[in-house]
Design brief:
The protein contains 7 helices and 2 strands. With 202 residues, it is mainly alpha-helical. Strands 1-2 form a two-stranded antiparallel sheet. Strand 1 and strand 2 form a beta hairpin. It is elongated. It starts with a helix and ends in an 8-residue tail after the last helix.
Length: 202
């Protein structure tokens, strides 16, 4: 009986030790809140806009509000596909040293409009599969809901699945923050379009 007790204790101990570390409850809440807040930000920015307002471009080489929404939606899907691919692959904790930014720095960097970045061709509005605002929003809302549920429930070791991008490396938890911050980055762009002096009054 004593041997059985010792064996059971050892099994439980090593079971806990070997269980992959996940993110904390506070980190889950922080990411979920940011995802929900930035989703609401998109809808607040486009609420009540007419077709003319949605399609207005400040210049021929600039994006319209509709272009921004299409980009947000297609990038949401693309970034999560890349992140989920990393999560499903074997953990790569040896790459954690390549992660140079804190969570707060990731959000601040992606949200900032100070540095303009040219997106990849598949993410350009004209190359997305969306034919209308409704199609883009439907995709965005569906993907965002899945992501919020994921971060609330996953036991994946997000910190030890590192995603290497051309300009920096982020752990998979940070990539979820990246996705939320990215939609806010382009919500700010929508507000810039609306602030243009030639933006239609209605």
């Amino acid at each position: 009986m004593k041997k059985l007790s010792v064996l059971l204790t050892a099994t439980l101990l090593f079971g806990f030790v070997n269980k992959p570390a996940s993110v904390s409850d506070a980190e889950r809440k922080n990411a979920a809140d940011l995802l929900l807040q930035t989703e609401a930000g998109v809808f607040n920015a486009i609420a009540g806009l007419s077709e003319a307002q949605l399609n207005f471009k400040p210049a021929p080489d600039k994006w319209s509000v509709l272009d921004c929404v299409k980009h947000i939606a297609v990038t949401e899907a693309g970034l999560w596909q890349m992140t989920n691919g990393s999560i499903q692959a074997p953990a790569n904790p040896e790459k954690r040293a390549d992660v140079k930014s804190t969570d707060e720095q990731v959000v601040a960097m992606i949200e900032s409009r100070e540095r303009k970045v040219k997106t990849a061709p598949p993410m350009e509005p004209q190359n997305t599969p969306f034919k209308s605002l409704d199609e883009a929003l439907k995709s965005f809302v569906s993907d965002r809901a899945k992501l919020v549920n994921y971060i609330k429930t996953t036991d994946a070791d997000l910190r030890n699945h590192v995603v290497t991008m051309p300009f920096a490396s982020f752990d998979s938890y940070q990539m979820i923050l990246f996705i939320a911050a990215h939609s806010n980055r382009h919500t700010q762009q929508i507000e810039e379009v609306k602030a243009d002096p030639n933006f239609p009054k209605n």
